[in-house]
Amino acid sequence: MGIVGMPNVGKSTLFSVLTQKSVDTSNYPFATIDPNVGVVAVPDERLAVLAKLSQSLKVTPAAMEFVDIAGLVKGAHSGEGLGNKFLANIREVDAVAHVVRTFTDPNVHHVEGGPNPKRDYETIELELILADLNTAQKRLEKLEGTARSGDKLAREALVVVARLVNALKTGQPARALTLTPEELVHITDLNLLTIKPVLFVLNCDESQINDPAPFELQGAPFVRLPLKTEIDLAALNPDEAQEYRRSIGVLNSSVDAFIKAAYGLLNLITYLTTGVTETHAWTITKGTKAPQAAAKIHTDFEKKFVRAEVIYWQELTAAGSYAKAKEQGKLRTEGKEYVVQDGDVIEFKIA
Protein backbone atom coordinates (compact mmCIF):
# COMPACT_ATOMS: atom_id res chain seq x y z
CA MET A 1 0.00 0.00 0.00
CA GLY A 2 1.35 3.39 -1.02
CA ILE A 3 0.86 6.37 1.33
CA VAL A 4 0.00 9.49 -0.70
CA GLY A 5 -1.24 13.03 -0.12
CA MET A 6 -0.26 16.69 -0.16
CA PRO A 7 3.04 17.71 1.47
CA ASN A 8 2.89 18.12 5.28
CA VAL A 9 -0.39 16.26 5.85
CA GLY A 10 1.11 13.45 7.95
CA LYS A 11 2.28 10.81 5.44
CA SER A 12 5.74 10.39 6.93
CA THR A 13 4.28 10.54 10.44
CA LEU A 14 1.94 7.69 9.53
CA PHE A 15 4.86 5.76 8.06
CA SER A 16 6.89 6.37 11.24
CA VAL A 17 4.03 5.15 13.45
CA LEU A 18 3.56 2.08 11.25
CA THR A 19 7.21 1.09 11.26
CA GLN A 20 7.18 0.93 15.06
CA LYS A 21 5.19 -2.23 14.34
CA SER A 22 7.68 -3.52 11.76
CA VAL A 23 8.63 -7.18 11.58
CA ASP A 24 11.79 -9.19 10.94
CA THR A 25 11.79 -9.26 7.14
CA SER A 26 13.84 -12.47 7.04
CA ASN A 27 10.54 -14.31 7.67
CA TYR A 28 8.91 -12.90 4.54
CA PRO A 29 9.51 -13.37 0.81
CA PHE A 30 10.33 -9.74 -0.04
CA ALA A 31 13.48 -9.49 -2.14
CA THR A 32 14.56 -5.93 -1.33
CA ILE A 33 13.33 -3.51 1.32
CA ASP A 34 14.14 0.09 0.37
CA PRO A 35 14.52 2.82 3.03
CA ASN A 36 11.03 4.17 2.27
CA VAL A 37 9.36 0.74 2.51
CA GLY A 38 8.23 -0.74 5.81
CA VAL A 39 7.06 -4.30 6.40
CA VAL A 40 4.43 -4.16 9.12
CA ALA A 41 2.71 -6.88 11.15
CA VAL A 42 -1.05 -7.18 10.69
CA PRO A 43 -2.62 -7.07 14.18
CA ASP A 44 -4.32 -10.39 14.95
CA GLU A 45 -5.43 -11.25 18.48
CA ARG A 46 -6.00 -14.89 17.43
CA LEU A 47 -2.25 -15.57 17.22
CA ALA A 48 -1.56 -15.09 20.93
CA VAL A 49 -4.53 -17.27 21.87
CA LEU A 50 -3.46 -20.12 19.57
CA ALA A 51 0.22 -19.80 20.54
CA LYS A 52 -0.74 -20.17 24.20
CA LEU A 53 -2.92 -23.20 23.43
CA SER A 54 -0.13 -24.89 21.43
CA GLN A 55 2.71 -23.58 23.61
CA SER A 56 4.36 -22.40 20.39
CA LEU A 57 8.04 -21.46 20.43
CA LYS A 58 7.53 -18.88 17.67
CA VAL A 59 4.72 -16.64 16.36
CA THR A 60 4.70 -15.26 12.80
CA PRO A 61 2.01 -12.71 11.94
CA ALA A 62 0.74 -11.76 8.50
CA ALA A 63 2.50 -8.71 7.08
CA MET A 64 1.99 -5.84 4.66
CA GLU A 65 4.37 -3.53 2.85
CA PHE A 66 3.77 0.21 3.21
CA VAL A 67 5.52 2.65 0.89
CA ASP A 68 6.08 6.28 1.93
CA ILE A 69 5.56 8.26 -1.30
CA ALA A 70 6.69 11.91 -1.28
CA GLY A 71 4.03 14.64 -1.34
CA LEU A 72 2.13 15.32 -4.55
CA VAL A 73 1.43 18.91 -5.60
CA LYS A 74 -0.81 20.63 -8.11
CA GLY A 75 0.55 19.94 -11.60
CA ALA A 76 2.11 16.57 -10.68
CA HIS A 77 0.51 14.95 -13.77
CA SER A 78 2.60 17.27 -15.97
CA GLY A 79 5.80 16.79 -13.97
CA GLU A 80 5.49 19.52 -11.31
CA GLY A 81 7.39 18.76 -8.09
CA LEU A 82 9.01 15.63 -9.55
CA GLY A 83 5.45 14.51 -10.31
CA ASN A 84 6.42 11.87 -12.86
CA LYS A 85 8.59 10.04 -10.33
CA PHE A 86 5.91 10.15 -7.63
CA LEU A 87 3.18 8.98 -10.00
CA ALA A 88 5.43 6.12 -11.12
CA ASN A 89 5.82 5.11 -7.45
CA ILE A 90 2.03 4.98 -7.07
CA ARG A 91 1.72 2.76 -10.17
CA GLU A 92 3.85 0.11 -8.43
CA VAL A 93 1.58 -0.35 -5.38
CA ASP A 94 -1.55 -2.51 -5.04
CA ALA A 95 -3.63 0.04 -3.12
CA VAL A 96 -3.44 3.62 -1.89
CA ALA A 97 -3.75 5.19 1.56
CA HIS A 98 -4.67 8.82 0.85
CA VAL A 99 -3.77 10.95 3.89
CA VAL A 100 -5.84 14.12 4.36
CA ARG A 101 -5.09 16.54 7.19
CA THR A 102 -8.19 17.74 9.05
CA PHE A 103 -6.59 19.37 12.12
CA THR A 104 -5.51 23.02 12.32
CA ASP A 105 -2.14 23.94 13.80
CA PRO A 106 -0.36 27.20 12.87
CA ASN A 107 2.97 25.56 13.78
CA VAL A 108 2.56 22.86 11.10
CA HIS A 109 3.15 24.37 7.64
CA HIS A 110 0.76 23.67 4.76
CA VAL A 111 1.71 24.33 1.11
CA GLU A 112 -1.66 26.04 0.46
CA GLY A 113 -1.45 28.27 3.55
CA GLY A 114 -3.69 26.10 5.72
CA PRO A 115 -5.53 22.77 5.65
CA ASN A 116 -8.78 22.45 3.73
CA PRO A 117 -9.65 18.72 3.60
CA LYS A 118 -12.01 18.94 0.62
CA ARG A 119 -9.60 21.07 -1.44
CA ASP A 120 -6.58 18.91 -0.57
CA TYR A 121 -8.45 15.69 -1.41
CA GLU A 122 -9.66 17.13 -4.73
CA THR A 123 -6.15 18.34 -5.63
CA ILE A 124 -4.66 14.84 -5.33
CA GLU A 125 -7.66 13.12 -6.92
CA LEU A 126 -7.56 15.49 -9.88
CA GLU A 127 -3.84 14.95 -10.45
CA LEU A 128 -4.33 11.18 -10.51
CA ILE A 129 -7.36 11.49 -12.82
CA LEU A 130 -5.45 13.77 -15.23
CA ALA A 131 -2.49 11.37 -15.29
CA ASP A 132 -4.88 8.48 -16.11
CA LEU A 133 -6.67 10.58 -18.73
CA ASN A 134 -3.36 11.21 -20.49
CA THR A 135 -2.64 7.44 -20.49
CA ALA A 136 -6.16 6.49 -21.64
CA GLN A 137 -6.31 9.06 -24.45
CA LYS A 138 -3.06 7.74 -25.93
CA ARG A 139 -4.53 4.21 -25.91
CA LEU A 140 -7.79 5.49 -27.44
CA GLU A 141 -5.97 7.12 -30.36
CA LYS A 142 -4.03 3.93 -31.03
CA LEU A 143 -7.16 1.76 -30.87
CA GLU A 144 -9.13 4.01 -33.23
CA GLY A 145 -6.61 3.30 -35.98
CA THR A 146 -6.50 -0.46 -35.30
CA ALA A 147 -10.29 -0.75 -35.05
CA ARG A 148 -10.76 0.89 -38.48
CA SER A 149 -8.78 -1.98 -40.00
CA GLY A 150 -11.51 -4.40 -38.79
CA ASP A 151 -9.70 -5.87 -35.78
CA LYS A 152 -12.48 -7.34 -33.61
CA LEU A 153 -10.49 -7.24 -30.33
CA ALA A 154 -9.53 -3.61 -30.98
CA ARG A 155 -13.20 -2.70 -31.53
CA GLU A 156 -14.16 -4.29 -28.21
CA ALA A 157 -11.31 -2.52 -26.41
CA LEU A 158 -12.24 0.78 -28.08
CA VAL A 159 -15.69 0.75 -26.48
CA VAL A 160 -14.24 0.18 -23.00
CA VAL A 161 -11.45 2.75 -23.32
CA ALA A 162 -13.89 5.33 -24.73
CA ARG A 163 -16.07 4.85 -21.63
CA LEU A 164 -13.00 5.23 -19.44
CA VAL A 165 -11.94 8.47 -21.17
CA ASN A 166 -15.43 9.95 -20.83
CA ALA A 167 -15.55 9.08 -17.11
CA LEU A 168 -12.12 10.61 -16.46
CA LYS A 169 -13.07 13.76 -18.40
CA THR A 170 -16.03 14.27 -16.07
CA GLY A 171 -13.78 13.96 -13.01
CA GLN A 172 -14.64 10.36 -12.11
CA PRO A 173 -11.87 7.99 -11.04
CA ALA A 174 -11.55 4.74 -13.01
CA ARG A 175 -12.72 2.73 -9.97
CA ALA A 176 -16.14 4.43 -10.30
CA LEU A 177 -16.75 2.55 -13.58
CA THR A 178 -18.66 -0.71 -13.36
CA LEU A 179 -16.72 -3.09 -15.59
CA THR A 180 -17.08 -6.83 -16.14
CA PRO A 181 -13.97 -9.05 -15.86
CA GLU A 182 -14.02 -9.31 -19.67
CA GLU A 183 -14.02 -5.51 -20.01
CA LEU A 184 -11.31 -5.07 -17.39
CA VAL A 185 -8.95 -7.16 -19.49
CA HIS A 186 -8.82 -4.35 -22.05
CA ILE A 187 -7.44 -1.77 -19.59
CA THR A 188 -5.44 -3.84 -17.09
CA ASP A 189 -2.12 -3.14 -18.81
CA LEU A 190 -2.73 0.63 -18.57
CA ASN A 191 -1.88 0.32 -14.85
CA LEU A 192 -4.29 3.12 -13.99
CA LEU A 193 -3.73 5.11 -10.81
CA THR A 194 -7.41 5.72 -10.03
CA ILE A 195 -8.49 2.11 -10.46
CA LYS A 196 -6.49 1.07 -7.39
CA PRO A 197 -8.55 0.61 -4.21
CA VAL A 198 -8.18 3.60 -1.88
CA LEU A 199 -8.46 4.02 1.88
CA PHE A 200 -8.74 7.59 3.13
CA VAL A 201 -6.79 8.40 6.29
CA LEU A 202 -8.15 11.51 8.01
CA ASN A 203 -5.29 12.84 10.15
CA CYS A 204 -7.27 14.48 12.92
CA ASP A 205 -6.89 15.75 16.46
CA GLU A 206 -8.56 14.12 19.45
CA SER A 207 -11.64 16.38 19.27
CA GLN A 208 -12.41 15.20 15.70
CA ILE A 209 -12.26 11.43 16.28
CA ASN A 210 -16.01 10.91 15.90
CA ASP A 211 -16.66 13.59 13.25
CA PRO A 212 -18.19 12.58 9.89
CA ALA A 213 -16.04 12.62 6.74
CA PRO A 214 -15.41 16.24 5.64
CA PHE A 215 -16.03 15.51 1.93
CA GLU A 216 -17.78 13.03 -0.36
CA LEU A 217 -15.68 9.84 -0.47
CA GLN A 218 -17.50 8.21 -3.44
CA GLY A 219 -18.06 5.03 -1.46
CA ALA A 220 -14.41 4.58 -0.46
CA PRO A 221 -13.67 3.55 3.16
CA PHE A 222 -11.98 5.92 5.60
CA VAL A 223 -10.38 5.82 9.03
CA ARG A 224 -9.79 8.68 11.45
CA LEU A 225 -6.24 8.61 12.77
CA PRO A 226 -5.03 11.08 15.42
CA LEU A 227 -1.39 10.62 14.45
CA LYS A 228 0.09 13.09 16.94
CA THR A 229 -1.75 11.28 19.74
CA GLU A 230 -0.54 7.89 18.47
CA ILE A 231 3.08 9.13 18.54
CA ASP A 232 2.61 10.33 22.13
CA LEU A 233 1.00 7.01 23.11
CA ALA A 234 3.91 5.04 21.64
CA ALA A 235 6.19 6.69 24.23
CA LEU A 236 4.06 5.43 27.15
CA ASN A 237 4.07 2.00 28.76
CA PRO A 238 1.03 -0.20 27.83
CA ASP A 239 -0.91 0.54 31.06
CA GLU A 240 -0.41 4.31 30.76
CA ALA A 241 -1.34 4.20 27.07
CA GLN A 242 -4.56 2.28 27.80
CA GLU A 243 -5.49 4.72 30.58
CA TYR A 244 -4.96 7.66 28.23
CA ARG A 245 -7.04 5.94 25.53
CA ARG A 246 -9.89 5.54 28.01
CA SER A 247 -9.69 9.25 28.86
CA ILE A 248 -10.16 10.27 25.21
CA GLY A 249 -12.70 7.57 24.36
CA VAL A 250 -10.49 5.58 21.98
CA LEU A 251 -10.08 2.15 23.56
CA ASN A 252 -8.29 0.49 20.64
CA SER A 253 -5.30 1.58 18.60
CA SER A 254 -6.30 3.70 15.58
CA VAL A 255 -3.14 2.47 13.85
CA ASP A 256 -4.16 -1.18 14.31
CA ALA A 257 -7.60 -0.31 12.91
CA PHE A 258 -5.91 1.31 9.90
CA ILE A 259 -3.66 -1.71 9.21
CA LYS A 260 -6.64 -4.10 9.43
CA ALA A 261 -8.68 -1.86 7.09
CA ALA A 262 -5.77 -1.76 4.62
CA TYR A 263 -5.44 -5.56 4.70
CA GLY A 264 -9.18 -5.98 4.08
CA LEU A 265 -9.13 -3.41 1.26
CA LEU A 266 -6.71 -5.66 -0.62
CA ASN A 267 -9.28 -8.50 -0.39
CA LEU A 268 -6.94 -10.46 1.87
CA ILE A 269 -7.83 -12.96 4.59
CA THR A 270 -5.77 -15.08 6.98
CA TYR A 271 -5.72 -18.77 7.71
CA LEU A 272 -3.65 -20.16 10.57
CA THR A 273 -1.41 -23.08 11.39
CA THR A 274 -0.43 -23.84 14.96
CA GLY A 275 1.77 -26.28 16.82
CA VAL A 276 4.64 -26.45 19.31
CA THR A 277 7.16 -25.20 16.76
CA GLU A 278 5.18 -22.22 15.49
CA THR A 279 1.84 -20.44 15.23
CA HIS A 280 1.75 -18.82 11.79
CA ALA A 281 -0.69 -16.50 10.00
CA TRP A 282 -0.83 -17.11 6.23
CA THR A 283 -2.12 -14.47 3.83
CA ILE A 284 -4.38 -15.46 0.93
CA THR A 285 -6.87 -13.72 -1.32
CA LYS A 286 -10.51 -14.18 -0.40
CA GLY A 287 -11.94 -17.07 -2.44
CA THR A 288 -8.72 -19.15 -2.49
CA LYS A 289 -9.22 -22.94 -2.53
CA ALA A 290 -7.39 -25.32 -0.20
CA PRO A 291 -4.61 -26.55 -2.57
CA GLN A 292 -3.65 -22.98 -3.54
CA ALA A 293 -3.73 -21.94 0.12
CA ALA A 294 -1.41 -24.88 0.92
CA ALA A 295 1.04 -23.57 -1.70
CA LYS A 296 1.65 -20.54 0.54
CA ILE A 297 3.44 -22.87 2.95
CA HIS A 298 5.37 -24.66 0.21
CA THR A 299 4.79 -24.75 -3.55
CA ASP A 300 4.95 -28.58 -3.55
CA PHE A 301 1.94 -28.71 -1.22
CA GLU A 302 -0.41 -27.72 -4.05
CA LYS A 303 0.71 -30.60 -6.29
CA LYS A 304 0.84 -33.13 -3.45
CA PHE A 305 -2.40 -31.98 -1.77
CA VAL A 306 -4.59 -34.85 -0.50
CA ARG A 307 -6.93 -33.17 1.98
CA ALA A 308 -7.15 -30.48 4.63
CA GLU A 309 -8.15 -30.93 8.26
CA VAL A 310 -9.95 -27.71 9.19
CA ILE A 311 -11.35 -26.19 12.35
CA TYR A 312 -12.41 -22.60 13.02
CA TRP A 313 -10.01 -20.99 15.51
CA GLN A 314 -12.67 -20.29 18.17
CA GLU A 315 -13.85 -23.90 18.05
CA LEU A 316 -10.27 -25.07 18.60
CA THR A 317 -9.69 -22.73 21.55
CA ALA A 318 -13.06 -23.70 23.06
CA ALA A 319 -12.09 -27.39 22.84
CA GLY A 320 -8.75 -26.68 24.51
CA SER A 321 -6.57 -28.81 22.21
CA TYR A 322 -6.48 -30.58 18.84
CA ALA A 323 -6.99 -33.93 20.59
CA LYS A 324 -10.15 -32.76 22.37
CA ALA A 325 -11.46 -31.06 19.21
CA LYS A 326 -11.03 -34.38 17.37
CA GLU A 327 -12.85 -36.28 20.15
CA GLN A 328 -15.72 -33.79 19.92
CA GLY A 329 -15.96 -34.23 16.13
CA LYS A 330 -15.07 -30.57 15.49
CA LEU A 331 -12.33 -31.28 12.91
CA ARG A 332 -13.60 -31.29 9.32
CA THR A 333 -11.98 -33.03 6.38
CA GLU A 334 -12.06 -30.84 3.27
CA GLY A 335 -11.00 -31.57 -0.31
CA LYS A 336 -9.61 -29.67 -3.30
CA GLU A 337 -12.73 -27.55 -3.85
CA TYR A 338 -12.89 -26.18 -0.31
CA VAL A 339 -12.74 -22.37 -0.19
CA VAL A 340 -10.62 -21.37 2.79
CA GLN A 341 -12.25 -18.97 5.26
CA ASP A 342 -10.69 -16.26 7.40
CA GLY A 343 -9.82 -17.74 10.81
CA ASP A 344 -9.59 -21.36 9.65
CA VAL A 345 -6.90 -23.36 11.44
CA ILE A 346 -5.66 -25.94 8.92
CA GLU A 347 -3.41 -28.98 8.82
CA PHE A 348 -2.69 -30.05 5.25
CA LYS A 349 -2.23 -33.72 4.38
CA ILE A 350 0.03 -34.32 1.39
CA ALA A 351 1.05 -37.37 -0.62
Task: Give me a quick take on this structure.
It contains 13 helices and 12 strands.
Instruction: Note the beta-strand portion.
Output: 15-25%
Structural class: alpha/beta
Q: Summarize model confidence as the mean pLDDT.
A: 88
What's the count of strands? Answer: 12
* Biggest sheet character: 6 strands, mixed
Order of helices and strands: EHEHEEHEHHHEEHHHEEHHEHHEE
CATH topology of the domain at 287-350, by name, is Ubiquitin-like (UB roll)
Reading off the top of the CATH hierarchy, the class of the domain at 287-350 is best stated as Alpha Beta
What distance lies between the first and last C-alpha atoms, to the nearest angstrom? 37 Å
CATH superfamily of the domain at 287-350: Beta-grasp domain
The tally of helices reads 13
Q: Under the CATH scheme, which architecture of the domain at 287-350 would be assigned?
A: Roll
- Uncertain segments are none
Order of strands across the biggest sheet? 2-4-1-5-6-7
| Rg on CA atoms, Å | 23 Å
Q: In one word, what is the shape?
A: flat
Question: Roughly what percent helix?
Answer: 25-40%
